[in-house]
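A further point concerns the way the authors explain their paired sequence and structure data. The central task, working out the structure tokens from the amino acid sequence alone, is never made concrete. I therefore recommend that a typical entry be quoted early in the introduction. An entry of this sort, consisting of the sequence and the corresponding backbone structure tokens, reads as follows:
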Amino acid sequence: MSHLFKKRNTYYLCVKYKGKRVRRSLGTSNIDIAKKIANELEESLLHELIIGKTPQRFSNKDIDLLMHEFMSFEHNWKPRTREIYETCFKHYLNKGFPDNPSYKAMVIRCLNRLQNWAYNEGIIDKARLIPGGNKYEPRTRVFNEEELELIMHKCTPYHYQQFVRFAYYTGARQGEIRNLVENDIYHEHLEIDGKTGKRIIKLNTQAQQVLQKQHVLWSYCRRYVNHTFKKNVRRMHIKNARFHDLRRTFGYNLIKSGMPIYQVSKLLGHKSVTTTEKHYAPLMVKDIPNFEL
């Protein structure tokens, strides 16, 4: 006896035989693909139950082996998702938990996802989850006019400076624009695979002018973008600065200029206005004028 079930947007196949049960992730959220994989997998799982074969098991101490198995599995991830897991696992193996609360929470979420996957696959006997995956401190750093002027005009090399300007003028995530190709570019917008799926990025006049100057489009890795930015801001004596702060500054300046938050939310590619409000409400409190009760 077998059946499909869905958990956290992924289909699983469950096969039962004489009171025994085995489950396997099918690595997809598409029901048609899941059915096809299940048809191919069902016989081998039933055979596994009949002859008593069990999957290779690890203890939670074998964290590096678990990570290798997890990363080798077909999760149907986007490239950015895979990059996040690789970065978080590498940091944890080499340095343990990060000091930064937000980054630490991200690492914990990745480790807990690993534990749940390993348990569902029968690789470990129990998922040992780590508390604190939601304990992060939202970052509120934005650049003032003087800092932004330096960043936009003094970053080197020049090709990278244009990338920085384009990032600010679009408010895009760096992963959305690091490897643009001609097919992504239209007259007044980009069409790219963003964090939450297909996304349209508006190109204002300033962003269009930057693109027109590029004889060769950018092809950067995440490490190069972040390392080069840190090196530049250090030279400019701008403290506590990260590349992603350009995106936050973009949204903050638009709201300050009077643009409705709904429009800002769409420009940022947020799923809902609630997300935008959550990120920008702490910033806007500082701009509330003096009042008396």
Remarks:
- The CA atoms of residues 105 and 132 lie 6 Å apart.
- The chain has a mean pLDDT of 87.
